[in-house]
Design brief:
CATH architecture of the largest domain: 3-Layer(aba) Sandwich
Structural class: alpha/beta
Shape: globular
CATH topology of the largest domain: Rossmann fold
Number of domains: 3
Distance between the termini: 56 Å
Number of strands: 15
Radius of gyration: 28 Å
Number of helices: 18
CATH class of the largest domain: Alpha Beta
Largest sheet: 9 strands, mixed
CATH superfamily of the largest domain: Alpha/Beta hydrolase fold, catalytic domain
Strand content: 15-25%
Strand order of the largest sheet: 7-8-9-11-10-12-13-14-15
Amino acid sequence: MVSTSKRAPHLPDARSGTTTLQTHAGASITGITPLQVVKIFPNETGFMFFDVLFRSYRSSIVYTKLPTRFPQRGFGFYTNAHYRTISSKMQVNYLDKADVETFTLPGAQVYEHYFDLPLVHNNASKDKRRIKVFCRQLVPIEKVNERKTLPFFLYLQGGPGFPCSLPKISGWIKVAFDHGYQVLLLDGRGTGLSSPITVESLDSFSDQEKADYLKYFRADSIVRDVEAIRSQLTLNRDPKHESKITLLGQSFGGFCITTYLSLFPDSVKAAYITGGVPPLVNSPDRVYEKTFARILKRNDIYYEKYPSDVKRVQDIIKYLNKDAVKLPDGGTLSSRRFLQLGLAFGGSGGYDSVHEVVVHAAQDLDMLGKLSFTTLSSVQKMQDFDSNVIYAILHEAIYCQGAASKWSAERIRMSDKFQPAFDWSGGSRVNFTGETIHPFMFDDYSQLAHLKKAAHILAEYENWDKLYDVEQLRRNAVPVAGVSYFEDMYVDVDLSIETANTVKGFQSWITNEFAHNGLREDPERVLGYLIKLSRGDHGSNR
């Protein structure tokens, strides 16, 4: 490649109109204007093409030789028409885009990418709807010049319905950096900055249209987004540099990884799952049968730790059953909604957080005869279904393959086995619920109420696509390691072990050292151990 800042004699002045441009190859291009000139230059493995808007041809100009397969060869310039013909045959690597916002964090340069992707990947030729998917690229600050060649390590967030938070260059990200990776943090479709699903974004849709649209926000669609992003970021990458992606998934992120291993195993270098080895089921019923059994054990632990809360919770439930209480955001604090605070029992400090709310609520009733704004705000802050509506409306659908959920959790709660334990009259010890979704939520939560009819449509929908290819998982060749927790309230360890035994080569770590959020509690230990496990440095306890 030759660069010159001299004005070439055959170039028109920037102030002139259209002219005939004589190329170095001897061909003439007529009707060209300065603002139609394009620059053509090579990258490592091919050629890139960009529009160049010259204010003056006295600017530095780069000449490059064209590939022989194009009709005009040699050194020269081409009009936009030629550019469109050429660019239809050659694509631009996403990392060469000039309009990417970037900033620096201690230890890393961050690049913020928006990918234009099909809403429906497997029918994109007919369904032209598009979404924007947001992804942050984190490059070790000392390796910024290597960002086009470093291997990618992509994190899939728990949920469904939650985005990645603004990163800190510590914890598992530091572990990934230390192992030679750059990191990708994805806001899964419908979350964060990725065409977020909100009541407002669905406002113009009919109830049926809302339901039909939401069908495309499960793991199979998220995985196809990631594969499209991987393909764009590694386009034309030199074969000596890794084009496969390494995956880390927490909770629901592990569900997505298992789908990825089913659909695109040849694109994955290695995979690590923390607290999220999914059950290979077709409907959620078996999942919730185990969930309610675990929830009852958590209630036992809670009331053993705080025995005085038995009476406090009874009094609170009786009060809420008697009077309709409005929350600051307009939602209703019913007794059944209050008992959903038990969702916190599965995380570190969850028992204590619920106890604090119970104590303050009981004191309010003793002193005021009603719940204070402060207490109501505390309850509201602990429940994020309204701000993350996918978490509620698709929670049961993440298990469905060719079967309807039919409000699985509610049916299991009302079964002969569990109904006596979850009697919410307030007469006996009142048990909290956990990570379960119920029809009443679409009455009691202010934002979910707008999606009530769509939620019922989805609960009856049977034609869900396949999420897992069990035969592919049985012949898996990708190094994969996962940690499952004996005391995990959200993901049943027995079902996880069944899946681990199905996936060929799966290296399991089963422990009671953490609850569900071991990756957050001790990221260096958890991810570091899984990496060693996948490489055979430690024995699996599967």
